[in-house]
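Protocol step 4 of 5: obtain the predicted structure for the target chain.
Materials: sequence only (see below). No template structures provided, no constraints applied. The aim of this step is simply to have a reference model before the mutagenesis design in step 5. Sequence pasted as it appears in the construct record:
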Amino acid sequence: AIINPPANAADFTRYYSENLVNFVLGSQDLNEETWAEFLAGLDSLGAADLEAAAKQDLINAGFIR
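Step 4 output (structure tokens):
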């Protein structure tokens, strides 16, 4: 694999999946405030660092310039 999962991959996946299901099923309203809270939660799990590391891995592997 070119992009390795983070050490907290299970937490990240669970948070992401549970929130998306709640939005889709209507258990949680989807509006600017709840979306911002969702993104803040992802950031608290290290999403920005994961994105930056994944991008660098793809650059190093020659998939993006």
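Step 4 remarks: DSSP finds three helices and no strands in the chain. The chain has a mean pLDDT of 95.
Proceed to step 5.
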